[in-house]
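Before the break, one more example. Copy the sequence into your notebook; we will annotate it together after we see the structure.
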Amino acid sequence: MSFRSSLLAFAILHSAFVSQAAPPPELTVLRQQYDKAVTERVTAVFDASQIHALSRGSSSNNGYITAASTADTNPHGFLIVDSTITSNAPAGTFSLGRPWRGWSDGYTEGGVVHNSRGQVTIRDTALPDAIRVAQPWADMAPNVWTDGRFFEYWNTGPGATINDNRPQLSPEQALEATPAGYLAGTDGWNPAG
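Here is what the structure looks like once it is written out:
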């Protein structure tokens, strides 16, 4: 028997490239498969994308838009920006995310034990009524949602609101929470050219 770690992601995107000037006239189906990937270290940007959250048929919990396991030393995990999230699930049955923590991913450096703490920012995005409005970020035992680094900014739609369970970026933080800011890394990479 062999064990394999894989992430299979299917998304319907308006554009397949970050900050593409004009999206193609028809929707593009992007299919990606990552085999033996260490996904705890991923920084990903979904810019001007359509994300469809499929119902599992539950009247109470249809799942999570994200389950990021970002290294706590990495300031950037998932950024969803200028996008639209749609769903065929009943109202209030989807969470924006939960803090996935890699159990064996801890390492010690300088006497400090590092581990993964999910990081997700969803900004300037239309949210459907399927999103839980009062508590959109979920616990994942033994972690509570506040163990993650979750933020929103200027979201719209019936699944968007502002309350104590929905941390918002400050205007200063929003200036940095951009595709270029997330993807630059320490080498200054600019995928937009």
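Residues 171-176 form the longest helix (6 residues). The chain has one domain: 40-183. Try to locate both features in your own notes.
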